[in-house]
Input
Amino acid sequence: MEDQNRQLIRERRRMQATLARRKVFTTTEKFESRFDHMTQEEKDAYFRKERKRAAGVLARRNVFTKIAMGFGVAIAIGLAILALVPIFYTFINSFMSSAEIKDNYGVVFQSLSGHAKDTGATYLDKTVVLRMVPERVTLEQYKTLLFMSPTYLLKFWNSVIMVVPIVLGQLVVSSLAAYSFARYRKRRREILFFSYVILMLMPFQVTLVPNYMISENLHILNTFWAIILPGVFSTFSCFLLTKYMRQIPSSYIEAAKLDGATEWQIFTQIALPTCKSAIFAMAILLFIDYWNMVEQPLVLLTDDQKQPLSVFLSQINEAEIGIAFAASALYMIPALLIFLWGEEYLVEGISHSGIK
Amino acid sequence: MSESQNKRGELLLQKAEINKRKRRLHRKRKMLDWGVFTAYLFPSLAGVLLFFFLPLLMLLKTSFQKSSTNTDFVGFDNYARVLTNKAFKDASINTLKFAVVAVPLAIVLALLVALLLNSGMPGKSIFRSILLNPMMVPVASIVLIWQVFFSYNGVVNGWLASLFHIDKIDWLKSSYAQVVILVMFIWKNLGYNMVLFLAALNNIPAEVIESAKMDGAGPVKRFFSIKMHYLSSTIFFVGIMSLINSFKIFREVYLLTGDYPFDTLYMLQHYMNNAFRHLDYSKLSSGAIIMCIVMIIIVGFLFFAEAKFGGDIEE
Output
């Protein structure tokens, strides 16, 4: 009975506290309490006991939170290690000598079907040796790569010459389009925007066929333009930038308009600066996406000389494994440098893209 | 009497004149607005029309033709041919299976990690940077390491053999192949999704959480009743991004296993790529059109779902 009563009172009190936070105040009625019949000593003793108990509970809870936090940190560290291991090993392995690589990893390639032309895959029971530290740190791989194999540098240059115009071009084109989509919202435009979104979601192999057909018709097949032009007009960044520009408070734009600003001024002085981090983030995302491209060059560039590094790396076989890791590492470095340089923008840009 | 009537008539006339002028001005301004914003859109629209929409129409046309050289109209023959093709069916099922498993998994795992990092843990920003790192690594340069880990003589097999005495398998040619690919997918995309969730979690007003705490809501209740509510639009967005990225997993698969991988890894993209190689245009275009329609349905459904369930948190 008492318990039920207390429960009721507690609930009412809680309700009142909630209301009080919403600035609605109600009077608390007086109720029977067990303290009414206690003497001072009894009360003191009771409170002493209670205080002790509460301290115990708190301490226990503290320990518990600490343990939970420890678990959390451990999990996070585990995840971080998992995230870094492949990158770490690529770099470590790039400092091994070619001979050591062959000793350690040669067996990997035995089970791949490309291993020997006639026999196919062979399954010898051996295990890879995974070393944390190379036996001897050498720059041999890098030397071979940079000074003795001109193809590598050529392919690197191919990658650069395709990716940079795509990133710059797409940013210009799509920031203009995004501004238009963000400011002019009529029914037909929304439908167009929706079709952009669908285009963005299309897997490469769907858009690749149209790309191929149109480049054939424009006679730009097997030139860099066949990669660059569709890249420039890809709608991915348009979608994100539109999302971002729609978050600009309309009061800013109204104010600028009242002051007599033209659309161009609003675009360059309000929209672009507000979206600076989004644009940088977009540049980074686009860079990594196109730095990574495999499908488009495979289909659109028939000339082996014109292939970018990504395709070249994928064709590395057993014979070249000695320099493969250095090639991979060098290929990774521009992306990682850009990440280090622009991480803040990237995080901020990504963060804002997901918020309504 | 007539004078006042005249006056009133004149006034009415004037009013009509002014209204007319206003309307004309309004229409002019509307036209101007349309012109300006269309001009901004123009470069992108022109490019998209030329490089995507026009070719898609051409695709639609070839999908009804016998072959690229023979332009006889054959109706839905090509579609029937593609839809009854076993390779196409298998490939669609594989791709669908992967997306159905990978997208929700990517969402849930990223959300869990984001909650973990957001629980007042030390070193949050360091972990965030580290977990975001894999996103920046080009597929081609990491493929070699995956090879080292997952091949028959690879590291994972070595560990399993020494720890649990399990027989070696060739991971990418076993029934676990999709799991391996799933691991790579999560590895790459966890960071990006997590950053999105972290931002959304930070965006939840602290007062709301605080008052829920005061009202005696436990962490689980707080999560499902409050945080989920604020996260719904982000979940939708992460879902879309993961869906896009789940199609990009083809790169890893292709670089690891080439044109004809193990059965469960044969994706729609492989099918398209191989049809490309054989220059089977009519097959290719009807396949592409089918994919297109399916994508439109999926996206339409997603948007519908978002409008229905996520629309109520306008701030």
Remarks:
- Chain A has four domains: 1-30, 33-81, 95-138, 143-354.
- Chain A touches chain B through 111 residues (CB under 8 Å).
